[in-house]
Amino acid sequence: MKDIFIVEDDALIAMLLEDMLADLGYRVCASAPDLERALAAARDTEFDAAILDVSLAGQSSLPVAKLLDERGKPYVYATGYGAAPAGSSPTTLPVLQKPFQLSELEQTMKRLTGT
């Protein structure tokens, strides 16, 4: 089972995402609703991959992505805004567009985790 870290400021979306990941056989090992907690978890938690909301209450999740790049942790952005933030790593997977279906999440997670 792969451990996933979620960064999402909308509690309902975070819960839905956690349920969807569980249905696909993944375990959410950490979840953060804001930039400060996301940075702490990204630094101090062990996980296999992450899903990052682009905007956290108006703040960019780019600092979290840069920390994940430093740690060599794969991640994907999930957003309704259409694109990864400027300055994102060129190795970032295509953005998971909200709202997404279970099948889209499944395809993305397989590419992200190599399973």
From TrEMBL:
It comes from the Bacteria. GO terms for biological process: regulation of DNA-templated transcription. The keyword Nucleotidyltransferase does not apply. Keywords: DNA-binding, Phosphoprotein, Two-component regulatory system. InterPro entries: CheY-like_superfamily, Sig_transdc_resp-reg_receiver, WalR-like. The keyword DNA-binding applies. This is Response regulator. It comes from Rhizobium hidalgonense.
